[in-house]
Input
Amino acid sequence: MVFTINSDQVLWLCTSLAAVWTAWGIFKQIKKPSDDHRAMLLKHDDNLKEHEELFAKDNRRLMSLEDGYRKMLEWQTEQHRINMENERRFKEDEESRKVIMKSLYVIINHTITGNGIDQLKNVRDDLNNYLIEK
Output
């Protein structure tokens, strides 16, 4: 059996190849925007995941900063309370020292001069009032 190829068959083959090649090119051009869009969406999804991770990390950092700030405010409030208590105690101690010094002055004055019994009675009353009020 002899197989012969004539020019019509060659021309038909070339035309068919050109038609298939053209159809393939048209198919690729029609599909290209869809592929580009799909690639862009995948890229945006990857970026979105990355940004969500960064946002989660920032959120954790902000929460720790808020906790630290809250603890600092609690500490400052406690320190303020302690300072106010110390100031109150200091004023009480100052009043006690004044009463004690006044009493010592009158006793020393009485010891030196032998007088001032009225002054001793007044200081005794002041000391008594202070002790009762306290």
